[in-house]
Amino acid sequence: MCPCLLYLLFFLCSHLLAGVVLYPCPKGCCCPHPGDLVLCESLGLLTLPRSVPLSTSVLSVARNRLCNVDNMFQPYSELQELSLGHNQLARFPRGLPSSLETLQLQENQITYITAGSLRQLGNLTRLDLDDNRIRAIQPGALLGLTRLRMLTLQGNRLSRLPANLPSSLTHLDVSENCISTLDLPSLGALVNLQVLKINSNCLRSIPERAFDGLSRLQSVELTNNLWVCECDIMYLYRWLLTDRIQMATDMICTAPLHLTQKLLLTLSVMAICPKLFKPVERMSSVNSTTTSGKVVESHVAQTTSASMLVSSNSACSVSSFKCRPSLKRSEPLHGNVSRSFSWSDQPTLQRLSYEDCLSLNVTSFMPQPTQEPYSPSPDKVHGCVKNSTGQQPEASATVVSNGSTTPIGLQITARTVLQSSDPVLIAVLAVLCVFTILLTLTVLLVLKNVLLRNLRVAPLPHVQGDAITH
């Protein structure tokens, strides 16, 4: 029984030490899967915590104050998902691991994308660059991303589509930019494209055969542009009428003056481009197009107000890169992400947010510190500083203990220890384990000696009598 007890103590100590030493959770972070999923959001970090395990596959350091993360994530060779959104990055990070499949860089201050920045990221399937200040993307910068499926560039300052986009794209979002023309070579290569969002730009028309090669296209958003309903828009008009009415039913004309505020698909061909008709056949064509226009009109929503239209028409200025007021989105970083998460699922940023992680810790009776969201002081604005020192900021977010009590039990104690990275606690735990093992060995040796003494056999009485007679 004693050897079994010794083995059990050794097993528990070794596993507790392995969980603390090999997979520590950085202070203030949330680690539902130690060593796999680490969420360090809203902590006011200026650099990456040193105790993040190198085996981490999903990492989020969003909503911090990171200014420069070049080569910071290069040692994480198993990293697959990385979120750097809502920071202060002025350029695309360098030295990212080639294992990355999802990269989120929304809400930063990136202005330019070079070809060298993405050269090593051939495994990327999703790239999120929403709400930056990107004015240009170097031609061919994205061409090497042969596995890229989703590219979002919403809310930037692009004046044209990026050149040489990878043919693997299925979702492309360039809404809320200042794009005034569509480049045919850029669109023609997107043979796998299914969703295209180019709404809230400065488009006046669509060039001929622009969408002819996009055979898999299922959804197009074209609203809130500066459509000129004249002969140049006839290609788009015909293309939308060929069983694609559901894609864009609220396209509003901004010119010419007599068609302002009119819905494009409610107009007749005669109204859009009168010169297409000869005087002889004008009457019959007008009747047929008027009938088709009435059919289309039943599928169209109500028009917007004249004031909104005039403001959008006058707001387009490519030189100042202010096409129109940005449509601020109210949803959070993970607003479109399903909140359901089970411990058996593969860890991913799309299933679990930082807030969900903290709530999971509470429901699992794990005393996880609650972290106050970072908010800069109103009278002090901290600028970007160099991260080469690797030191934490002095004014980091305050960690407040939730004061919850831990139920008695070995499993709950183990979970609690795994969430701590205090070196003093690690040392105390190691000393206790060694002391327990030595004490157990000492007790076993004492018991063994006592048993041996009790088992010694005394000489028999008759043997002693025979010896005396002789």
- Mean pLDDT metric: 74
For the biggest sheet, the summary is: 10 strands, mixed
Which structural category do the helix and sheet elements fall into?
Answer: alpha/beta
Count of individual helical segments: 10
**In percent, how much strand structure appears in the residues?**
5-15%
Give helix and strand order, one letter per element, not per position.
HEEEEEEEEEEHEEEHEHHHHEEHHH
Gyration radius from CA atoms, angstroms: 34 Å
Helix content class: 25-40%
Q: Termini, distance in Å?
A: 49 Å
Label the overall shape.
elongated
Low-confidence segments, given as residue ranges, are 15-20, 289-314, 318-322, 324-328, 330-344, 364-374, 376-381, 387-421
Major beta sheet, strand line-up: 1-2-3-4-5-7-9-10-11-12
Total number of beta strands: 16
Features:
470 residues; alpha/beta; two-stranded parallel ribbon
Walk me through what this model shows:
The chain is of the alpha/beta class and 470 residues long. The chain has a domain at 1-24 and 421-470. Helices cover 26% and strands 9% of the residues. It has ten helices and 16 strands. The protein has helices spanning 2-22, 184-188, 234-241, 269-272, 282-297, 306-314, 354-363, 410-418, 423-454, 461-469; strands at residues 30-33, 37-39, 58-60, 81-83, 102-104, 112-113, 126-128, 136-137, 150-152, 171-173, 195-197, 219-221, 227-228, 253-255, 370-371, 399-400. The strands form four sheets. It has a ten-stranded mixed sheet with strand order 1-2-3-4-5-7-9-10-11-12, covered by helices on one side. Strands 6-8 form a two-stranded parallel ribbon. Strands 13-14 form a two-stranded parallel ribbon. Helix 1 (2-22) runs antiparallel to helix 9. It is elongated, with a radius of gyration of 34 Å. Mean pLDDT is 74; it is low at 15-20, 289-314, 318-322, 324-328, 330-344, 364-374, 376-381 and 387-421.
